[in-house]
Structure formats: C-alpha cells, structure tokens
C-alpha cells in the first residue's frame, strides 16, 4: 500500500440555532490517500488479494488516528471511500466493506454496529458527506448525522481516499422523539 | 488534537464553529520527503461584528475586542495540531466574509496588530504574515498562502493550504483562518536567492527574442 497523504479534519460546534452547544459537539475525520491497488490492471474479477493486502492495514492505521483527533469517546461513527476517476466504485467498496477494515475501529471504540458509509467516484477535491450513526445502536435517532469532507488535491484518477469519522455526541440541538415513540 | 476555547469566550465573540484541517504528506511523486511537513489550517466561524451596521462604520472598537481573541484561539489550535510553536516554520492567515459584509470587515479582523502581531508572537515568528481574503458564500474553498515565519524570502517554504467550511460563512458571518506548516514543500528544488543567477531582460535576450 502506498500512502500519499494523511488528512485530519476536526470540527467543533459551539453554537447552533443561535444557542450555545454545551458540551461542544466534536466530529473528527481522518482520511488516507492511497494508490488504488487495482489501478492499471483492467477489470479484475477477484478483488480478494488486493483487499487482503490493504484493508486491514488501513483500518489499523486510521482507527486510532480518528479517535485521537476526536479527543473524547466516540458515540457515533462512519466511513468513506472516494475512488478516483479511473477506478470502479467497487474498488472503494472492496476496501471498506469488509470486517478486516471496520473491526479495528469497532474494537478501538468499543462499538458493535456496522459503520454507515459513503462510497462514490469523484474528481480531485470532490466533496463528500460521511453518514454517522450510534456506535452500539443504529436506531438511536439523535446520533444520525453527517460530516462534510474534502481533500483538496485528491483523489487523483488512480487513487482512493479512505476515511473514518467519529462524533463525540449526537446532533448539536437534537430534539426529535425516539424511534420507539412511533411504534 | 483540539481543545475548545471556553464557552464564555466562544459566546463573547459569537463563535459558531471551529474547523481544523491538517495534512501530512507521506509520499509525493512516489518519494518520501526528506523533511516531511505537517501543515494545518484552523478556521473560526464568527458572526460579523459589523453585520447590520451603517455603511462605513468605524471598525476600531470591535476589531480590538474580537481580533485578539481569535488570534489566541486559532494559534492555540494550530500549535496543538502541529506539535508546538517551535515546530512551526511557516505561517499565513486569511478571512472569508459573508455576502452581507464588506471585504473591509474581513481585513479588519486579520490586517491589524490586534490579530497579526499576536499571531506572530504566539507562533514565535518575525516575518510579516502573508494572507488571502474573499467575500463568498458558504463552502468556498480559500487557498491560504504561507511563508517562512522568520525569513519570509526562504523560497522552499512558499506553499499554500486550502481551507474550507462547508456551511460557512453565512451572509452575516466571517470565517477567520490561521495556517502553519512545520517544514518546506515536499521536494523543494527551485533554488533560493543565494543561488539564483542574475536575471534581467538584457541577459535573457536569447529567451525573450
């Protein structure tokens, strides 16, 4: 795996709707810009060897970084794969939709749910929204949220941006009724 | 990597959000840099202190009240993101004013000693701080220039970082940005003033003709 750069993004919301947010809502994203493992190979039927060579190492690299950037226990999380224009969306999905990738984050965050994801193909500097859900109960409505991210000079056509996101709490002024109240 | 300012501070300057963006180049052109640099921008989204005021209002009172607090918050977060003021070798600053404000409002928050002198002091620099500014809508990507904090003409440290907040500035907001780098561009190799040959139109006649 060749990594070109690692980007860390942290946003801290201190006010929303004209009211203070206390404690401040923190969301962190850490993204690695890597060479697409299948670049230049035409249509590769069996993605297994590339997944084995890359996915676990990426998860192991990004999970502690995003939790450190968050600086607080994670309550919600998500992931992303943005494939450069010469690749297939399937290449990004291959790297993040495997337990080899996500288990590093689940274990580090004491999480149990599957990671919600965005996967798409885009040009350099593509903006993408990472969905986040609660780390142990994906039905907890207060924690459904997204974070917007962009790496200014990536992905190149033969690269993939792989990212993990974590949030310290639910939406800043969350005040929707629980799912259970509608059942 | 980021400790938030106290809530009273945040409310005093009508701070809505703080965004830190950091990049670390691992390889460039497939090769690891000899001096890998960590670079970061920190952006604070604040209410434009002059929103709704009469045209050509006097700016001095608010810039003296708001800009020093911004200088403190932004440099605290830059220093935390980059591992210490002594690690920082290059710096820059920027502001994006929302559409209900004047470009002069952006300048008022970054171009006076209330901001510039304090950023320079907190980051232990000596150079004048290079900048960019714009009036724009939310999500505008602004390129923030940086140069060496004590020797501005050091060519290896001429570099930029992009800063962007997806939902800011609103029309009545200003995004104020400080940026810094712990080193030069990944593979600097365009010489310096000390190595340049003398270049004039006359001795370049063969190229220019």
Automatic annotation (TrEMBL), chain A:
InterPro entries: AA_synth_put (IPR009569), BB2672 (IPR035936). This is Amino acid synthesis protein. It comes from Nocardiopsis ansamitocini.
TrEMBL record, chain B:
Gene3D superfamilies: BB2672. InterPro entries: AA_synth_put, BB2672. This is Peptide synthetase. It comes from Nocardiopsis ansamitocini.
